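REVIEWER CHECKLIST
Item 1: Sequence provided? yes
Item 2: Single chain? yes
Item 3: Sequence as submitted:
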Amino acid sequence: MFQIATGLPPVSNREDYLLTLSLFDDDTLLPVSLSGITLANTGASFTQSNWTVTDGNIVTTSTTQINIPTFPVTQSNNLTALPLTVGAGLAIKAGDPVQIVDNVTGLNILNGFVTSYNINTGALIVQIGWTFQFEIRRGGPRNSGSGYITWWDWGTPDDLGPLLQASFANGYLSLIDVNVIQILIPESVMKTLGSIGPFNSTQADSPGTYRASMTGTDSVNTRQFLIASQPIYDGGVTN
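Item 4: Structure as written out by the authors:
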């Protein structure tokens, strides 16, 4: 992934937007796990209803049926809001790191953070792995004035909002390997950017050079993974 400003390859607003990003440790150069999942057999998902749940010195059990997916992790099978029932009356707090291990083999493991716990019922919600938010927003002004433009400067809020987004929630983002994220926005969405020429004086949703960014969170830590310029041209594969 790019943690400093970079330039992404040009694309057309008449084709699928496909961007694949990977994350490696700066010191060891090893892949950074973004899924929170360890499978004994990486080629198949694992389903079980006999688990040990560990939160620091707190050890409890759960009989909730959990299906651990294999890759890709998508909109339909991610575990970023995993509900399970554990013992009541425990000193579990939101933000605590938690590990969930199957009691049959001990080889299928989930690591994440507590997002909520009901001390009366034992209802526990855990985020396993990271969630991501990729956005494409308008770029800067295109010679639409002279001199200093007060509404465009470093730190100026962009209250216009993103033009395109990709996340688990809308299905345009998936985790295809332990450290590899794939963003796939279909052409039917890309072409909504319109076909106003780059020399038009308006700041409409027209092709040109946009800003792209992506953040990720494991519910406790939030990191910025990408800041980039994204050229998008009008026309291309479809009419």
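Item 5: Key structural point noted by reviewer: The domain at 37-128 is CATH 2.40.10 (Thrombin, subunit H).
Item 6: Recommendation: ____
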